[in-house]
Specification:
The protein is an all-alpha fold and 97 residues long. The protein has one domain. It is 74% helix and 0% strand. The chain has three helices and no strands. The N and C termini lie far apart (54 Å). The mean pLDDT is 78.
Length: 97
């Protein structure tokens, strides 16, 4: 982790958790597992080879790596805004338009 300009002063586990998303090994593992699962599911049909299932599984794994964090971020943001609106209504009373 040298050369990135990050300071490792403090809890090293917290530092690793904050910088884990930059580790390329996590991405390769998810793609490989997605390809293996896709190939396994495709081989159950028995009609053709399982290479197309591996490709679809790898693509699905990569798409999910982007979509799932976005959905979780949206849900947390929505919950925070909803809670802030409820808190405002409790403090100042409900404003009718």
């Amino acid at each position: 982790m040298t050369g990135w300009g990050f300071s490792q002063v403090g809890n090293p586990n917290a530092f690793r958790a904050l910088t884990r998303h930059t580790d390329r090994r996590n991405y390769v593992g998810a793609t490989t597992i997605g390809a293996l699962i896709g190939a396994g599911i495709d081989s159950l049909s028995g009609d053709d080879g399982n290479a197309d299932g591996a490709i679809i599984g790898a693509i699905t794994a990569n798409v999910l790596k982007i979509v799932v964090p976005m959905a979780v971020t949206y849900a947390i943001g929505w919950a925070v805004l909803r809670g802030a609106a409820e808190l405002k209504d409790q403090v100042f009373g409900e404003v009718k338009s």
